[in-house]
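Worked Example 4.2. Consider the chain below.
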Amino acid sequence: MPRYFFDSHMHAMNLTHPNFVSFVDSVADNLTEFVTSGALSPGYLLTPSNRGQQGLVTLLNMFSVFERPIGEIFSLMEEDLSGSFRHHQGTIKGKMPANLMYPEHPYIREGKFHFRSMTFDRYALVPLVMDFSRMSGDEDSKSYYTSEQQEKILAYVKDTLDGIEWYRSVRPYGLLEFFPFLGINPEVHTLAFIDDLLTTYVRTDSSTEWGPRKIKSPKRFRGVKFYPPLGTAPWPSDKRKLEKVRHIYQFCEANNLALITHCDDQGFRGVPAKKAQQYTDPASWIAVLEHFPALKLDFAHYGRQYNPIGKSPLKVLLDRSFTNDPWFTQIIELMQRFDHVYADFSFSGTSVDFYKDLHAFIQEQKDGEVARRILERSMFGSDFTVNLAKVESYTNYLRIFESSEFTDDEIELFVCTNPMRFLGLDS
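Applying the procedure from the previous section yields the following C-alpha cells:
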C-alpha cells in the first residue's frame, strides 16, 4: 500500500456554494450577539497583521482561490506544494506578517511528497462538502428574492465529484488522492432525503482506491460532515429531529464510517450565535456517544474558542493558551472516556503558538495514558481554503506545522496512522 500524508480537513468551494442569505439572516436580528460572540475577535480574523492594506491583500489572495472551479483548486494546491509560486506578502510596507515561513525545498519533488526526514507516495485530501441548504419562506428572511427551499448540497456534491474527475484527467500522474466527506444538515431535510443522500453518495467499503477512471459513480464519499452552527443539534429534544440524526449515526456506526463536526466558536452560521455555540459545544455530543459508543467522531479545529464561554474579557486577553479553554478540556475528557473520539488541527494551526501550546500540554501530562491518547487521536488538517484568511498559502500552513516541536514519529501519527484508522483504511 502507498504511504499517505493526510490533510484530514480541507474545503474546496467557490462563491456559489456557501449560503450567504442564511448567514446574514442569522446576524440581522442579533447584531449585538454577533459582535459579542467573538466574530470580530483579534485572535480570529482581525489580527494586527490583517488590518489595513495587509488585510486587503489577504482578502485578494483568498478570493482569487474562491473564484476558481473546484478542480482547479486541487491543481493549484499541488502546484503550490511543488514550488510553482513565490510568496509576496512580506513586501507590504516592509512589515513581515505573522507566521510567514516557507521550506527550503518544495514539498513535492522527484515524484514524492517530502516532509522533514519522511517521504510519502501520495498526498491525501479529505474535502469536506458542507450542506448549505436552507428551508424558509419569505416571512423568515429579510431577502426579497429568498427561495422557499434550496437543496444546495446536491450542486456542491456534483461540483466536488466533477472537480476530482477533472483533476484526475489533467494530472493522471498527480500525487493527490481524495477521500471526501458528505455534508448533511438534518434540520432542513426529510428523513427520506437524508437516507437517499447516504445510500447514493457514501461508500461502505474500506478500499483506498478511488475506482476505475471510466466509471463515474457518485458513491465516493467516505464519511459525513456536520456543521452545527448552520442549525444542527447533535441530540435534539424533538422526536422527529432526533430520528433523523439517529439514522445518520446508525448508518455510520454500522458501516465503520467516520463523522466530522465543526468545533470552534466561529465560522458560517445559519442560526443566532448563542444557539450556534450551544449546538457546537462538545458537551452536546455526550448523549450521541453514550448511545453510539462505536461512532468515530472528529472534533474539528480542536474546539478552539476565540471568545471562551465562562472567561472574562480580561482573562481571555491575559491567557492566550487555548489548552485552558472549556471546549478543549471537554474534548480531552471525551478522548479518555470514549475510544473513537478524535480532534484535528484545521485552521487553529495557522499559528505557531497553537502547536506550542498543544505540545506543552501533552508534555505536562503526568499520566502517560492521557498523553498517549491525545497523540493517537490527533490529526493534521488545514481548513484550506478558509485558512487563507490567516496564512499566505497552503505551503505556508504546512511549514508552520513542520516547524512545530513534535517529533517525526508524532508527525507520522498525525498525518498517516491516525487518519488511516479514523477512515477505516488501516485494516
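The longest strand covers residues 122-129. Residues 23-28, 34-40 have pLDDT under 50 and may be disordered. Compare this with Example 4.1 before moving on.
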